[in-house]
Amino acid sequence: MVQRDPTICEVWWVAAQVNERPFTIAATHPVCPRSATTLLTLVELEGTLDRQVSAEVGPVFYFVRSLA
């Protein structure tokens, strides 16, 4: 799980699982606290997948896809 902190610029919440307590990482890009590997947010990851998603349609979906 990678999520930008909504209140602090360039701070990320990173966790191995969604239900775990996240690490707080201060960086311009989210990195793994164990390996220092640059992580991808869900929007970035979905932009790299070569699959057809027919169930996800609508204005919000198209807006989020345009950000990737």
User: How widely separated are the two ends?
Assistant: 17 Å
Largest sheet: 3 strands, antiparallel
| Form type | globular
Q: In terms of per-residue confidence, which ranges show pLDDT below 50 for 5 or more consecutive residues?
A: none
Judged by helices, strands and strand pairing, the structural class is: alpha+beta
Mean pLDDT metric: 75
- The level of helicity is 10-25%
Within the largest sheet, what's the order of strands? 1-2-3
Number of strands: 3
Total number of distinct structural domains: 1
Count of runs of 4 or more consecutive helical residues: 2
How much strand?
A: 15-25%
Cα-atom radius of gyration:
14 Å
> Secondary-structure element sequence?
EEEHH
Structure description:
By secondary structure, the protein is an alpha+beta fold. It has one domain (2-67). Helices cover 24% and strands 16% of the residues. It is built from two helices and three strands, in the order E-E-E-H-H. It has helices at 42-48, 59-67; strands at residues 2-4, 11-14, 23-26. It has a three-stranded antiparallel sheet, with no helix packed on it. A hairpin with an 8-residue loop joins strand 2 and strand 3 (23-26). The longest helix has 9 residues, at 59-67. It is globular, with a radius of gyration of 14 Å.
